[in-house]
Amino acid sequence: QLCCRSVTETNMLLLSALTVALMTATVQCSVITCARQLSSCSCETADGGVIDLSPLSSPSGYPFSASASGGQDTFRWSPCVGQLCGNQFDTAVCEFYGSSTLPVGTASSAKFVTNPARGLQLVYTDNRAGLLYTSSVILACDPDAERAEFSAEGGVYDIFMHLRSKHACVGGGGGGGGGDGGEGISTGDILCIIFLCGLVLYLSLGLMANKFILGKEGSELMPNKNFWIVLPGYVRDGFLFTIGKLGCYGGGIGRSSAGYEAV
């Protein structure tokens, strides 16, 4: 029983590692990372491309405005250039509520930050009367967007807004509006290409081998059919095993924890 338990836990750990690797590969394929900030509204990505929001900027006034959920507060945003908010200059994000205004992010504090859950963000801070305000503009790349879309979630001290624009794409800024200037292939792209090519090759060779060498028909043509049938269950068990080890489930991990006999 001890031997079986040891083998089972080893398999669970291997499945956990596989789950983490798959999640990491997914993030690598989709999340953009800024390696070097070029200005308050542009940065160089890890693969040498450039994101430049300067075509969206205005020398005077806030080019973007949106009401938060509920419609009580309005947030105005000025990329690149600081504006006047109340009696403070150099404001990138200004909150309007009723007839009052509140600076909640200075242009000089702009910083590109990659969040695993929300993606690439342009983050501003403003420390007023001992209170730290953080305003994040979440950047969504849309190469087909002719006009930028801006919306606001709002918040009290942590404020979130959203920008969907072609200028949020790598190589989409610099006044060019789209195109492929400066866009390279990242490590994540290479991993995705290798994975997809390997998957196509695996399926093609497996199907041909089962058809013409082993003479199989129907669903039996699928390479390693039994493995793919049980894999989702194994991945689920590996995930629950990892969560259980972290203590998130307290006493166990579902069916697996009840499968051992007391020694």
From TrEMBL:
Bilayer-spanning residue ranges: 193-214
**Alphabetically ordered keywords of this record:** Autophagy, Cytoplasmic vesicle, Disulfide bond, Golgi apparatus, Membrane, Mitochondrion, Protein transport, Signal, Transmembrane, Transmembrane helix, Transport
Q: Which GO terms describe its biological process?
A: autophagy; protein transport
Q: Which family does it belong to?
A: Belongs to the ATG27 family.
For this protein, the record's InterPro entries field holds: Autophagy-rel_prot_27, Man6P_isomerase_rcpt-bd_dom_sf, MRH_dom
Classification lineage: Eukaryota, Metazoa, Spiralia, Lophotrochozoa, Platyhelminthes
Reading the lineage from the top rank, the first entry is Eukaryota
- Protein known as: Autophagy-related protein 27
| Subcellular location(s) of the protein | Cytoplasmic vesicle membrane; Golgi apparatus membrane; Mitochondrion membrane; Preautophagosomal structure membrane
What PROSITE patterns has UniProt attached to this entry? MRH
The record gives the membrane topology as: Single-pass type I membrane protein; Single-pass membrane protein
A cellular component annotation (GO) from this entry: phagophore assembly site membrane
Q: Using the record, list the residue span of the signal peptide; answer none if the entry has no such feature.
A: 1-29
Specify one Pfam family. ATG27
